[in-house]
Design brief:
3-stranded mixed beta sheet, 2-enoyl-CoA Hydratase, Chain A, domain 1, alpha/beta, 269 residues
């Protein structure tokens, strides 16, 4: 499989059967979900699924954290341009469903901030590993849109409806330790051990009975497929929200580094 077309995702073969996907630059700034990265995160799972040389993919972030939220220029464009909204809706849908339907095992290794499209893949991974210093945040409502890109399909299943509502409605951050405690992630470890732990898990998966593993994953992911209508509705409502005044105020407040002042909802809402 030729992965050279991927530019925002750094793809390399760690060892036979194990592929590594890296967001961002080593020693650089936190990876931001630009238009390019958003598209690549949606598409790469199709190639991994078809790749006969890959049994396990590890997804991690380089630099100061796992992933930042969407690039503000891209987010602003979504509020103004129908074609941009349609494209982002399609990619956000494909990211979730392509990852769910990818037959190969996926391991995520999250440290520092874990937000946006990267977090979608991080929490939908088959084995999610968070460093103790991870800061998992779903910031959709802070931006002024519904939590739609993955939250409805997986948060309630992982950590229960009460915790899901608390963190998604208030945009409160979840530490790696707390995420493990409530079941939002599979494992937690020290940041210095994170890459080694991810590789250890990947090696165990790569050496296992591949048909049995893939059929087990397929069966378990039917829980997520059953939640597909909830996800579809939440994603549609998120995209609809980008056309309204709350998203415009959310983007402006982030640009101006201030607390948002959202307008009141319509009288008949």
């Amino acid at each position: 499989m030729d992965y050279t077309r991927y530019k925002d995702l750094k793809v390399r073969r760690l060892e036979p059967g194990i592929l590594e996907l890296v967001m961002g630059e080593e020693g650089g700034k936190l990876s931001t979900a630009t238009e390019g990265l958003h598209k690549e995160l949606a598409e790469i799972w199709l190639d991994i699924d078809r790749d006969p040389e890959t049994r396990v993919a590890i997804l991690r972030g380089a630099g100061k954290g796992f992933s930042a939220g969407g690039d503000l220029a891209m987010v602003e464009k979504i509020t103004q341009d129908f074609e941009a909204r349609a494209r982002v809706w399609r990619e956000a849908r494909d990211l979730v469903y392509n990852l769910i339907n990818c037959s190969k095992m996926v391991v995520s290794a999250m440290h520092g901030p874990a937000v946006g499209a990267g977090l979608v893949a991080g929490l939908l991974a088959d084995v999610s590993i968070a460093a103790k210093n991870a800061r998992i945040i779903d910031g959709h409502t802070r931006l002024g849109v519904a939590a739609g890109d993955h939250a409805a399909i997986v948060w309630p299943l992982l950590c229960g409806m009460a915790k899901a509502k608390y963190y998604l409605l208030l945009c409160e951050q979840v530490s790696g330790e707390e995420a493990e405690r409530i079941g939002l992630v599979s494992l937690c470890c020290e940041e210095a051990e994170l890459q080694a732990k991810a590789l250890e898990v990947a090696r165990k998966l790569a050496s296992g009975a591949q048909t049995a593993l893939r059929w087990t994953k397929y069966s378990l992911n039917n829980w997520l497929r059953m939640a597909g209508p909830s996800f579809d509705a939440s994603l549609a409502l998120e995209i609809l929200g980008f056309t309204g005044p709350e998203a415009k105020e959310g983007v402006a407040s982030l640009r101006e580094k201030r607390k948002p002042s959202f307008p009141p909802p319509p009288d008949d809402f």
